[in-house]
Design brief:
5-stranded mixed beta sheet; binds magnesium ion; binds adenosine-5'-triphosphate; elongated; 45% helix; 10 helices
Length: 399
């Protein structure tokens, strides 16, 4: 019996079989090259050192609308819009003098061509050069990228529109939550309180001998108390009115305290209260961000401790929420029905900030860096479509 070796066996690399026939003749090689050039999908144009066209393939004819008999011998400038003539000639000359033998014509931008009908169009081009019998020839391979650019534009516009829609939906939701919370608190809450007082009055003024009625009143009082408490809880969960009435700092204190009570997790809040005098859009976003991060800790982390830190650094606000729980794969794909972190990222992006989530099996750290609006700043537009303010990267550290 042969035993398989326990280490990888190095096999010799295969060698090229000895050619059966002689190398291509010059004439055959030239014919193959000419046929390849003419059947290429990309336009191929060669110009001489006076920038006159010497080769123009079939794809170039289709792209520019000129036939090769019309173009060969003509200056390259017929294929370029007038305003680029000077800069283009300089670029080609510079490339021929000092450049490598092959490169893209523009690393960071698309060049512009002009069809026979005068229509301009974007081109992705690469250029190479060779010297033959003392003369220099430049060959340019061109691809019409009109459709590609249009698709990128459409995608960019559609992303901006989706962002604007998400922002408007968030605004509307927040507005509706505020309205319902206010009505629950003011209308229903007040009526229930009045009712409690009335029941208390009836109970107090009940003549002796009505023990059964008195017991009913007592039960009604208990029920009313729990209903008032439930109404307050539902209203606060929708949107704590103190966020609008008293400001962000008391609202965050309430949030952290409530989370700690409900989850049994020891929650600590460190905040620079002076840093929290923010415009409403920012305070709502910050409140919802901390709320989502804490809800996630209560729902998923199996943590015993959680900390919320909010600090202001010049014109930036930094929020860090961390826990000592089981962690998760923060770089993994999103669960289909999970939208909390997505919404959190969206809120931060609308305020032109940055989110960084680090998670290990020792806990999770959600760090947010927000630029604060300057006094002369207009509120960021919904779409977040304005120029993004560059954001300092958030330094990574262990959760
Ligand atoms: N602090 C955390 N500790 C452990 N796992 C977390 C933590 N935060 C998020 N996760 C994981 O990331 C997933 C996505 O969170 P996300 O908030 O987006 O959705 P969700 O909480 O599942 O649902 P919802 O849409 O109600 O927020 C969670 O399901 C959970 O597995
Ligand atoms: Mg969540």
């Amino acid at each position: 019996m042969r035993l398989a070796p326990s280490f990888p066996v190095r096999r010799p690399l295969p060698t090229m079989p000895v050619p059966a026939s002689a190398p291509l003749s010059h004439a055959l090689a030239t014919a193959i090259a000419a046929s390849a050039i003419d059947s290429a999908m990309d336009a191929i144009i060669t110009i001489d050192d006076e920038q006159r066209v010497v080769l123009f393939n079939a794809a170039a004819e289709a792209m520019f609308g000129w036939s090769r008999t019309e173009v060969v011998g003509a200056p390259l400038s017929v294929l370029i819009p007038q305003r680029f003539h000077g800069s283009h000639a300089v670029a080609v000359g510079h490339f021929g003098a000092a450049g490598p033998t092959r490169r893209r014509m523009a690393q960071d931008r698309i060049v512009t061509g002009q069809r026979r009908c005068g229509e301009e169009f974007p081109i992705d081009a690469s250029i190479s050069h060779l010297t033959h019998e003392g003369r220099r020839y430049f060959t340019v391979i061109l691809r019409d990228v009109t459709l590609r650019l249009r698709a990128i534009e459409d995608l960019t516009r559609s992303r901006a529109e989706t962002k604007a829609l998400a922002a408007a939906a968030q605004d509307a939701l927040e507005h509706e939550k505020r309205r319902i919370a206010r009505e629950l608190h003011d209308e229903l809450g007040q009526s229930l309180t009045m009712l409690t007082m009335d029941v208390a009055w009836c109970k107090a003024h009940l003549p002796a001998g009505y023990a059964a009625v008195s017991a009913h009143f007592a039960r009604m009082e208990d029920l009313l108390k729990t209903t008032v408490a439930a109404t307050r809880r539902i209203a606060s969960d929708l949107r704590p009115l103190m966020l609008d009435d008293l400001g962000l700092a008391p609202a965050l204190e309430w949030l952290v305290e409530t989370m700690a009570q409900r989850s049994g997790i020891e929650c600590t809040l460190h905040m620079d209260e002076a840093a929290l005098d923010l415009p409403q859009m920012h305070s709502t976003a910050l409140f919802r961000i901390v709320q989502e991060a804490l809800t996630n800790i209560a729902k998923h982390a199996r943590a015993t401790e959680a900390t919320v830190e909010i600090a202001r650094d010049a014109d930036r606000l930094r929020i860090v929420v961390r826990d000592n729980g089981v962690g998760f794969d923060a770089a993994g794909p999103r669960k289909p029905a999970s939208f909390g972190l997505l919404g959190l990222r969206e809120r931060v992006s609308l305020l032109r900030g940055e989110v960084c989530i680090d998670s290990t099996d020792r806990g999770t750290r959600v760090a947010i860096d927000l630029p604060l609006p300057r006094d002369d700043d207009a509120a960021p537009e919904h779409a977040g479509a304005g120029a993004a303010t560059p954001v300092k990267p958030i330094p990574r550290e262990a959760p």
